[in-house]
Structure formats: C-alpha cells, structure tokens
C-alpha cells in the first residue's frame, strides 16, 4: 500500500512538471511568434496531424531557422531550441494528450502555487519582507479594531454621563453637574450601604462636554479624540526602526541614553512640577515632593524604588 501510494505521488509530481513545461512553452511561443500561436499553427499542421506529418513539418521548419544558417542570431537559436521541444511533445502520445487538453480548454490563468513557487522561488530577504509586512498589517488591523471598540466605549460612557446629569428626557442643563457613571463590573456598596452596580467614576457634565473628575479636582475631557487612532508608525517594525535610529543619533551626539524616548515627546529631567502621578501615564511615579530646604526629592515608583533622573547637558 505504501509503495503504491508513493508511485502515484511520483506520477502526479511528474505530471505537474510536464504541465508546467507546457505552460512555459505556450507563453514563450506566444511572446516570440505572436499571441494565439499554438504548437500546431506554428508547425502549420492541423491538430489531427499524425506523428509522421508532425515530424515532416518539424524538419521543414527547422531548416529555415537552424543556427548554422543564422550565425550569431541568439533569438533564432532560441526559437530553434523551442521548436525541438514542441516537436518532441507532439510526437510523444502522453505529452501530446496533455497539450491537447490545454489546447482545447485553454491554459489556466492561475497555474497553481507549485508552478509560481518553482519559477519565482523567494529568497530569505523576500520571505522576511513578506513576514514583516504581514505581521505589521495584522498589528495595524488589531489597532483599528481596538480604536473602534474604544470609540464605542467612549460613546457609551458619555451617554451614561449625560443621562445621569440631564435625566431620562436628555434635556441639557446650564452650568456643571457632577455625576457618578457606572463602568460595569461586580456589584458594590457605597458608604451609606446603597447598592452600586459595579465600578463607578466621578464625571462632570458641562453643557455638551463631558469630563472625568480626578480626586484632586482636575478634569479631563472625554470625547472621540480620547481614543488613540491606528497608525502605521505604531506598528512594531516602524517603532523598532525609529528606536534604533534615535539611539544611534543620541550616541553620535553624546546624549545620555539611560532613558530613551518612545514617542515624539521631549524628555526633561524626569519631573513635572505641575503633574500628578495619575497624569504621568505609564511612568508609575507619584508627585515629586520637596524637603524643608526646598530641594526636590527624586520621584519614587510604586513599591518605593527610586527613579533615576537624567540631567540636561
């Protein structure tokens, strides 16, 4: 059973190779002899011609394009070699049967992955380029999906805030109104024992504008600009290239590279005297404190570890 299957696969492989040879030959003949030229029309014989008639036509045509009669003519030499292959295919019953199938039904436009891979076998650089483009494209699509999801979530939060501030009739009110908006999650209870359906945040509705209210009183607008839109620049390969470029540039200029920028923002000495820990997204720091002498203390991360400051030169 195993050997029979192996023989069948070998025969199929040989058949595919033969078909691929016919495909190449058909394309080459149409390119050199004119579109629509077939093996039979080139030999000037009907498709029902016998083997002897094909051999006779081949000898007649080959005499006119023999390399000895056309010295130094590379194109004629290629045509002569091609003519020999055509004659060999048509004089072989199995090969002729394969060609006659495509002669009657036409050569397929899509010739199979095996054909294209064998003719245009990609190198390592091509494969890497394809993988980079593919993975970056997938990452961009994920970014786009997350962006759409964030927009829907922002729209829902804004609607809930306005509903809490304006009431069921959704009639805008003048001035500001502080409301609590439920973000979902498991049920909780407030200080008075009232049931709260999940996690809530403090928000302020001022006209049509909706803001998130921080514990320190700062307000942050919530609208479509809050969501981060997808960009090619944020895909992993572009981020890596820009990071390496920035690192190389800083190395040449002699700029310390202890803390590398990951975005377009400029880095200062590591502190912002006006921002709280919640405003410094992703930093993991709290607001810098000042001691009695007026000197600034290094900001600390959650957990008590000190963050090293980078001085300007």
UniProtKB/TrEMBL annotation:
It is a single-pass membrane protein. It comes from Lentinula boryana. The keyword Phosphoprotein does not apply. InterPro entries: DnaJ_domain, DnaJ_domain_protein, J_dom_sf. This is DnaJ-domain-containing protein. Residues 303-313 have a biased composition (Basic residues). SUPFAM superfamilies: Chaperone J-domain. PANTHER family: DNAJ HOMOLOG SUBFAMILY C MEMBER 1.
């Amino acid at each position: 059973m195993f050997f029979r299957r192996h023989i069948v696969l070998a025969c199929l492989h040989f058949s595919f190779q033969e078909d691929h040879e016919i495909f190449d030959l058909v394309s080459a003949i149409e390119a050199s002899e004119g579109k629509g030229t077939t093996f039979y029309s080139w030999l000037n014989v009907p498709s029902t011609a016998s083997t002897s008639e094909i051999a006779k036509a081949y000898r007649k045509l080959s005499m006119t394009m023999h390399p000895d009669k056309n010295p130094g003519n590379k194109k004629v030499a290629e045509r002569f070699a091609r003519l020999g292959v055509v004659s060999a295919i048509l004089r072989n019953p199995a090969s002729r049967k394969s060609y006659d199938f495509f002669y009657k039904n036409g050569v397929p436009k899509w010739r199979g992955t095996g054909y294209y891979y064998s003719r245009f076998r990609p190198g390592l650089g091509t494969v890497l380029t394809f993988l980079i483009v593919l993975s970056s494209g997938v990452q961009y699509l994920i970014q786009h999906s997350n962006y759409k999801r964030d927009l829907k979530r922002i729209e829902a939060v804004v609607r809930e805030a306005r509903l809490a501030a304006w009431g069921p009739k959704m009639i805008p009110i003048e001035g500001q109104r502080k409301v609590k908006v439920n973000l979902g999650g498991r049920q909780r209870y407030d200080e008075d024992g009232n049931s709260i359906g999940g996690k809530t945040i403090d928000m302020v509705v001022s006209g049509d504008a909706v803001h998130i209210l921080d514990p320190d009183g700062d307000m942050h607008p919530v609208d479509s600009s809050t969501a981060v839109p997808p960009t090619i620049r944020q895909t992993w390969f572009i981020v890596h290239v820009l990071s390496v470029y920035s690192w190389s540039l800083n190395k040449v200029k002699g700029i310390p590279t202890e803390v590398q920028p990951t975005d377009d923002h400029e880095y200062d000495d590591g502190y912002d005297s006006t921002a709280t820990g919640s405003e410094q997204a992703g930093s993991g720091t709290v607001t810098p404190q000042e001691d009695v002498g007026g000197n600034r203390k290094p900001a600390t991360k959650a957990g008590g570890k000190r963050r090293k400051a980078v001085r300007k030169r």
